[in-house]
From TrEMBL:
Belongs to the MIP/aquaporin (TC 1.A.8) family. The gene is TIP41_2. SUPFAM superfamilies: Aquaporin-like. The chain crosses the membrane at residues 20-42, 54-76, 82-103, 115-134, 140-159, 171-192, 212-233. This is Tap42 interacting protein. It is a multi-pass membrane protein.
Length: 247
């Protein structure tokens, strides 16, 4: 069974970690900026057409996720505390670096949201909230399922050594999953799948109603997906044997 690596505080001063944190900040900033801006633009231009707004946000999010994961390869392009947690439970990142990533992602989200508030002339920043008739338990389950599917795709297309035909197409596939999940769950739980994406707008608007849903759901979904995929589907024995044969 994969062991979670604690790491050391010295990681924060290592050049590779510093570079990763800078890239992760930039990628997360641009992801949140585009995602939130697309929601604001759709709200402004759609003339009350909720379906048009949903499709616009889903498409924009799918595109920017695919591009930022590719561009942020130095840090792994997590963009999301739930993704970081999913990789942590699989042993792919240390606890210390995970905490640094989480701080990085939240600060980047806040910065992007504050900048959008300024650039839009004080226009309201859309905050993730549950739809009318959707309770907290339902919202948490929505976010668990949607985030589980996201991390399952991350593992299947980017982490699994035997990803096969998905090699090189992981970021695009993950972008598709994000877009599809927004189309599926956007009208119910807002389909955040990402605590950082929800954090920035909530901070700027001072609206924390039900915000905990967007932490509990994604972190549970991401952690479960990482644990189950790593321990049930990745054949580490095969990987080790292949390396021994090469040597």
């Amino acid at each position: 069974m994969t062991k979670i690596a604690l790491g050391t505080t010295r990681e924060a001063t290592q050049p590779d970690c510093i570079r990763a944190l800078i890239v992760e900040f930039i990628a997360t900033f641009l992801f949140v900026f585009t995602g939130v801006a697309s929601a604001m633009a759709a709200e402004k231009l759609s003339s009350g057409d909720a379906l048009l707004r949903l499709v616009a946000v889903a498409v924009a999010s799918a595109f920017v996720v695919a591009v930022m994961i590719s561009a942020g390869h130095i840090s792994g392009g997590h963009l999301n505390p739930a993704v970081t947690l999913g990789l942590l439970v699989g042993g792919h990142i240390t606890v210390v670096r995970s905490v640094l990533y989480w701080i990085d992602q939240l600060v980047a989200s806040a910065a992007a949201s504050y900048l959008l508030c300024y650039l839009s002339g004080g226009m309201a920043i859309p905050v993730h909230t549950l739809a009318s008739g959707v309770g907290y338990t339902q919202g948490v389950i929505w976010e668990i399922v949607l985030t589980f599917s996201l991390l399952f795709a991350v593992y299947g297309t980017m982490v699994d050594p035997k990803k096969g035909v998905a090699t090189g197409h992981g970021p695009t596939i993950i972008g598709f999953v994000v877009g599809a999940n927004i189309l599926a769950g956007g009208a119910f739980s807002a389909a955040s799948m990402n605590p950082a994406r929800s954090f920035g707008p909530a901070l700027v608007m001072g609206n924390w109603t039900g915000h905990w849903v967007y932490w509990v759901g994604p972190l549970i979904g991401g952690g479960l997906a990482g644990f189950f995929y790593e321990h049930l589907f990745i054949d580490r024995t095969h990987t080790l044997l292949s390396r021994d044969e090469e040597n």
